[in-house]
Amino acid sequence: MVIGVCKIVLSIDNAFSLKEKRRVIKSIIGRVKAKFNASIAEVDMNDTWKNAVLGVACVSNEAGHTDSMLENIVRFIEKDGRVILVDYSIERIYS
After folding, report:
1. Rounded Cα gap, residues 68 and 51, in angstroms
2. Is there a contact between 57 and 43 (Cβ–Cβ < 8 Å)?
3. One pLDDT digit (tens) per residue for the chain, 95 residues
4. I need a labelling partner for 83 at 20 to 30 A (CA). Which of 7, 19, 23, 59 fits?
5. Phi and psi of 88, rounded to 5°?
């Protein structure tokens, strides 16, 4: 079993309040869950309204599948015009 974990750092330039930021982040989280069936949540910078850190996890029996899925999720989020991808990192956990 291979667990893929991805940390995604985003900038939200058009958010001028926590309410606007949360609306954008909740929308992205919902769209990723619906399209990729992956676990995703905001994991850091909860009280800053210009930045967000998302954590994504998926499980597979092949490392290539988890890597591909997480890369596709990163590209999907990057294409969203409401946010700017600042950084991301992918890790694998073998069990």
Report:
1. 25
2. no
3. 999 999 999 999 988 999 999 999 999 999 999 999 899 999 999 889 999 999 999 999 999 999 999 999 999 999 999 999 999 999 999 98
4. 59
5. -155, 155
